[in-house]
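User: Before I run my own analysis I want an independent prediction to cross-check against. Here's the chain; please return only the structure tokens and, at the end, one sentence I can use as a sanity check.
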Amino acid sequence: MKIIEILKNIIPDKERVTINETVLSQHGSDLTYHRPCLPDVVVFPKNREEVSAILACANEHKIPVTPFGTGTSLEGHVIPVRGGISMDMSLMNEILEIRPQDFLARVQPGVTRNQLNQRLKSKGLFFPIDPGADTSLGGMAATNASGTSTVRYGMMRNQVLGMEVVLADGSIIKTGGMTFKSSSGYDIKSLFVGSEGTLGVITELTLKLYAVPEKIIAARAVFSDVEAAGAAAVDMIRSGLSVGRLELVDKKTIKAVNMYKDTSFPENHTLFIEFSGNMNAVQSDVEIAKEIAADYGCLSFDFEKDEKSRAKLWEARHQAVMAVAAAAPKKRIMITDVCVPISKLPDAIRFARDVIDQHGIEAAIFGHVGDGNFHVVFAVDVQEQEEVLLAKKVVDEIVHFALSNEGTCTGEHGIGLGKMKYLRQEHGDAVNIMETIKRVLDPNLILNPGKVLNIK
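Assistant: Structure tokens:
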């Protein structure tokens, strides 16, 4: 193919431009049920100049380009549905600068969150956004990732101070900067955060850092009723406690995690809670949380204070998706997330469980209930169309309940392939503005085509 020869002229290292079948396959699917589509070629740039040259070439020849981080996204973001180039950013993995006094770091997009936090340990700092997997920071910015710590620190959009982006025509822009706030012009930076690789390719990020809290205590609160667990979570947030994380895992997921990780957690609906901050304040908040949990029929409330035990507890939570997948090894994961106002969370969780049970389908519920966001996970046989359609019907009902209750069709997974049909229902004519922006920045529609906006 002509494009491969052109790419090899841009990138002289033969191993960084490949049509190896195994590599193509790795870049043609994600962790879920979405149908795989292979790229024509995978390219591994090492710097912004190479990214710029690749995009300029692709734009000239109208060849699709799909940015690729670690491949852990859940709505088909990295699947190159129209072929072309899969641009793997993993070799752009340098931590360029850490400024402890300014509480910021500059990184390339291939740096992972664990890689950054390992470097920050000795400085008493950390980067808080924790989606579970050891994902790339560029991918996290592209999808506006969040996770277990959102209840306290917000989403990725709240952490990105500045970025360098390469546009579809190969031009390089910088937006944002090194300050924690600015009133200077349009906030173009936030436009790229969450754009899922459809507006530009991120080549550098400036991120906000935080001091490690003085005291951290993790706890497990076990309930016999999933709605009661959700209501207790809402009350804990309403009480103004120093909650760093607040997660709900239903009993089906706990059972799967116990089998997968050989743990022995009580197999019932569980709140995983982390308190962090001043020592005295944390201790007081733990007692208040215990009282709130008791008011909702809490069966047990246990603590983990040392770092190793806390890490084991949160690893169990983070392994929930993989545990559900392992329980059905011949099936693929279908996972949806929605977010509602926190006061409506208990009703949304109850509705989700009722719909799941009414349709007689196996599914697990868990999520970041401290911010109104929860997930529903199904294991489906992609060869059985009726099974896939039934799961999609359940997802549809859960999403529509969220939208009719002032919520959103996705709190953190993004639109990708799986949620495009809900975008206009949620945003109305604002989608027209999104399409206009897309056409201005990417007139040839080469950047991650077929995602977010259904433009052809």
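Sanity check: The radius of gyration is 22 Å.
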